[in-house]
Structures are given as C-alpha cells and as structure tokens.
Specification:
Structural class: alpha+beta
CATH class of the largest domain: Alpha Beta
Strand content: 25-35%
Shape: globular
Number of helices: 3
Strand order of the largest sheet: 3-4-5-6
Largest sheet: 4 strands, mixed
Distance between the termini: 31 Å
Order of helices and strands: EEHEEEHEH
Number of strands: 6
CATH topology of the largest domain: Aminopeptidase
Number of domains: 2
Amino acid sequence: MIRLLSEDELGKNRETLDVNEVPPSYQKAFDEIISDTNQALMVMEIDGKVIGTCHLTYMPSLTFQGSKRMNIEAVRVDQTLRNQKIGERMIKEAIKMAKENHCKIVQLTTNKKRIAAKRFYERLGFEATHEGMKLYC
C-alpha cells in the first residue's frame, strides 16, 4: 500500500490517501468539477508527472455591476520543486484566464498560519482586504 500525506502541517490530517484505493468522495468531487463549466482544474506536468495543481471557480456575482469573479483554491506544488516559479506560473495563468473570462476580481484565501503563502500571494499583487470566515459542517 502506498500512502500519500499532505506535506504541510495544516493539511496532513485532512488529506490522507491510499493511492491503491481512492475514496469515492474524491471521484464524485472530480466528476462534479469537470462537468461544471464554471469550474476548471489546472495541472502542471513535467514529463507526464504532475508537479502542480489548482482549482479555479468562475462565480457570477450580483456585485460589481453583475460581473464575474474567479476563486482560486487548492494550490499545490510538488514539495521537491518549490522555489522554481511553478506556483507563480500557475497563478499568473489563472489571472490571465480570469481576464479572458471577463472576471473583475480574482480572490483566494490562505490560512493565517501560512505566512510564506501570504507573502507569495502579496508579491503577485493580491491584497488582504477582507477577514475571511468559515464554518465547517
């Protein structure tokens, strides 16, 4: 059995996966995402090996004169390939996609404990303008 664990402190107890037996919930989520035209999964590869991913959601909005916004979620880069601008390339491509789809806002959240991630997003032009709140069900 091969077990993959999230490499960061916050995700290690949240995303544990036996690659020989993927829970049906992952497949169901994947199927729902790929069937929804307002969703996109970005995958970066080198020689057929996945090195980075992120989940993009286009959201029609009644604010900003009925414009759309893009939400960026689940940004992941292979731990062994960090600091090679892979994440930067993904985020810049996501921003380009948002503009091409007439989005007025690109938004994301990052945990307050992820100080380096916050610096990374700020370097790419994101601003911490709101206080996010979540309720886990």
